[in-house]
Design goal:
single chain, alpha/beta, Rossmann fold, 6 helices, about 40% helix, about 15% strand
Length: about 160
């Protein structure tokens, strides 16, 4: 079985904003025997958006717990798909996802970035760290399936 870490905005996102695209990508990858791993797999939402909760459940809410789980998953996965949607006014860039991008580069984990955000798409350090920068989730899924499905009984030649 092959695994893909699904990185992208969480902080300040609603449950749908954080999870809908991840559910879609996971569903498309599962058709090819590839499993999407969500960094939200253990993090319950409290209120309307995902936030860092001081004094929250130390198993899941603290910075060390979140970072520990996410970095464990990044190391365990075969590659990563990062989603940077175009930012709405007042919405900040996902700093956590950018930090993950740098960490993934350091451990030589192959990364597909999907973005319509011009800042991300053109940034020289982002482009250096990512192996692919593509405009749609479908394009990112196609690259991942093309690379990884052969390991799970797909086309190898």
């Amino acid at each position: 079985m092959k695994y893909v870490y699904l990185a992208g905005p969480i902080l300040g996102c609603t449950e749908g904003e954080a999870n809908d695209w991840r559910s879609y990508v996971d569903k498309m990858l599962k058709r090819h025997g590839i499993i999407g791993i969500s960094p939200l797999r253990c993090e319950p939402i409290e209120g309307n958006t995902y936030e860092v909760i001081p004094g929250g459940d130390p198993k899941w809410h603290g910075p060390q717990a979140i970072g520990g789980k996410n970095f464990l998953d990044m190391r365990a996965c075969d590659m990563c798909l990062m989603f940077f949607p175009a930012r709405e006014p007042g919405r900040e860039l996902s700093a956590g996802t950018l930090i993950e991008l740098g960490a993934l580069k350091m451990i030589d984990k192959k990364t597909v970035i999907v973005t319509t955000d011009p800042f991300i798409a053109k940034h020289s350090v982002v482009r250096y760290c990512a192996n692919w920068v593509l405009p749609t989730l479908e394009d990112g899924i196609e690259v991942i399936v093309g690379l990884m499905a052969g390991y799970n009984g797909g086309k190898n030649v």
